[in-house]
Design brief:
single chain, 224 residues, Glutaredoxin
Length: 224
């Protein structure tokens, strides 16, 4: 089953959704999931080096106190999934274009044989989420991105070549445009077999129902 995940490295609910999807897929032995990363930048106009985190959060959430309330809810949701999100460690709201390019590069290097959650792209995406949300690193920078590549066990020279050129930049833009055509306005959004989509970081039971709905839609189309 082809599973398209529209997500952004700077989205905490995408990090939570990634964990929930990985858990749910590991519970299915009736499908062979092919999880594909689809870049979606929540802040496509973010400066290349990012912005001051507090100023960005105050602007986005209508003040620092309101932002704190949101942070607390997200941190609690993450903790229930075994994740640690630390908004207090963040200093920069990042531009994620280069992070997306590297995830697509890692996906291109995979052969599709890895178990659920273990493909090069999934491992790198998860590591970038941790770098940003747990360590507070500025994943706009080549330094942070290459550190994530090395710690994931991928080829740092290949990643450096991507960052020094424009490889996968067009694919990032195309994914953003495709999301707009599909009326995807926020992430995470997960599309199963191009037939059934769910928005948000949904729990396992809703993911299972979405898989079954996609399977049913596919069977109906094949028998038509």
């Amino acid at each position: 089953m082809k599973i398209d995940v529209y997500a952004d490295i700077a989205c905490p609910w995408c990090y939570i959704g990634h964990a929930r999807l990985t858990t749910a897929l590991a519970e299915r032995d009736d499908i062979a999931p092919d999880v594909r990363w689809n870049p979606f930048q929540l802040q496509p106009d973010m400066p290349a080096g990012g912005r001051d985190w507090r100023a960005f959060a105050e602007e986005k959430f209508g003040g620092w106190e309101r932002a704190q309330d949101m942070f607390e809810r997200v941190e609690e949701a993450a903790e229930r999934e075994g994740l640690a999100i630390r908004f207090d460690r963040m200093t920069t709201a990042p531009n994620t274009a280069d992070a997306h390019r590297l995830v697509l590069w890692a996906e291109d290097a995979g052969d599709g044989s890895a178990p659920v959650g273990e493909s090069p792209a999934e491992r790198l995406a998860e590591h970038l989420y941790r770098s940003y949300f747990e360590r507070g690193e500025n994943v706009s920078t080549a330094e942070a991105l290459l550190r994530a590549v090395e710690e994931t066990g991928l080829d740092p020279d290949g990643a450096r070549a991507v960052l020094e050129g424009d490889a996968f930049a067009e694919a990032v833009d195309e994914s953003q445009q495709r999301a707009e055509r599909l009326n995807i306005r926020g992430v995470p959004c997960t599309v199963f077999d191009e037939r059934y989509a769910i928005a948000g970081a949904q729990p396992a039971d809703k993911i299972h129902r979405a898989i079954e709905a996609a399977q049913g839609a596919t069977e109906t189309a094949e028998n038509a």
